[in-house]
């Protein structure tokens, strides 16, 4: 089975053909974030047209917003507002006469990790995508869990300190709290700069608090971290674990696995895997 997987990100449109968990070369282009719905759809059509061939049997797409479980319409897309209330699935199915599945991008990340990455040996896991914001995908008992309206797992919106979780656990943390770019902090940390390492330790403590909230709600087996800050995981892991270890139920923490994703293109793989039978 060959499936086109599409990752409709906040800034880029990326796609590739997936067969048996193997992703063929990826097509990527900047996304017209402020374009009309017609312009954005034309971009999606153009990428699919590049990849489409007779062996392709389905299309899966991840979007940076909520997907209503009943109507499958896209909601709450901040970076691509023209797609709000658009039935992207129906439009693609009508155009290509292929089955199409659509899901939130963080859910696609978690689903890709569950099938092909760090979550393969677990029945429950949470995928955290830490970039411009904080996205969460939940796999419970081998199935994606999205909730009644598609918004389950949006822990970033939970009130925390004087803001919310996302303010302190996202790539924006470095600029918002320390008035410096995340790329600069990472480069300095690689050089052993103590101030940069202290910033990451602080970030890790906030992440640890977010993980404790997730554990109280879900008691999951595995948490996989992706997004822009995953490369810096060695710098904030200690601060994260320091906070997580005082979780109220130690038997949950003792068997918990937390690691940075090592899977390339988890979102595209997960979008394609939406068509696989849930195990």
Automatic annotation (TrEMBL):
The protein's name: ROK family protein
Listed Pfam families: ROK
InterPro entries given in the database record: ATPase_NBD, ROK
Family per record: Belongs to the ROK (NagC/XylR) family.
């Amino acid at each position: 089975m060959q499936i086109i997987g599409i990752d409709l990100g906040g800034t880029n449109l990326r796609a590739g053909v997936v067969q048996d968990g193997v992703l063929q070369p990826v097509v990527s282009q900047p996304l017209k974030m402020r374009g009309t719905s017609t312009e954005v759809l034309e971009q999606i059509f153009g990428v699919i047209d590049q990849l489409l061939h007779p062996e392709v049997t389905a299309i899966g797409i991840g979007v940076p917003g909520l997907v209503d479980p009943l109507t499958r319409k896209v909601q709450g897309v901040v970076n691509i507002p023209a797609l709000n209330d658009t039935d992207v699935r129906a439009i693609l199915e009508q155009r290509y006469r292929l089955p199409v599945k659509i899901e939130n991008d963080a859910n696609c990340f978690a689903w890709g990790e569950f099938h092909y990455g760090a979550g393969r040996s677990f029945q429950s896991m949470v995928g955290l995508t830490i970039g411009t914001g904080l996205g969460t995908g939940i796999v419970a008992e081998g199935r994606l869990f999205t909730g009644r309206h598609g918004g389950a797992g949006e822990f970033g919106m939970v009130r925390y300190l004087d803001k919310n979780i996302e303010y302190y656990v996202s790539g924006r943390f470095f600029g918002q709290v320390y008035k410096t770019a995340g790329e600069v902090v990472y480069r300095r940390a690689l050089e052993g700069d103590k101030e940069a390492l202290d910033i990451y330790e602080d970030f890790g403590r906030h992440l640890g608090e977010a993980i404790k909230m997730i554990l109280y709600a879900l008691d999951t087996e595995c948490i996989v971290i992706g997004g822009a800050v995953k490369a810096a995981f060695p710098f904030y892991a200690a601060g994260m674990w320091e906070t997580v270890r005082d979780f109220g139920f130690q038997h949950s923490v003792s068997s918990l696995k937390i690691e940075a994703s090592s899977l390339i293109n988890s979102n595209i793989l997960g979008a394609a895997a939406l068509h696989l039978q849930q195990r």
